[in-house]
Amino acid sequence: MFYRLLLLCCFLSGPVLAKQGFFGTVTFVTDGDTLWVAPAQGGAVRKLRIDGLDAPEICQAGGETARAVLMDAALHKRVWVEVRRLDIYGRGLAKVWLDRNDLGAYLVSQGQAWSYRGRGSAGPYAAQEALARQARRGVFALSRPENPQKFRRRHGSCHVPSS
Question: Which domains occur in the chain, in start order?
Answer without folding.
Answer: 21-155 (2.40.50.90)
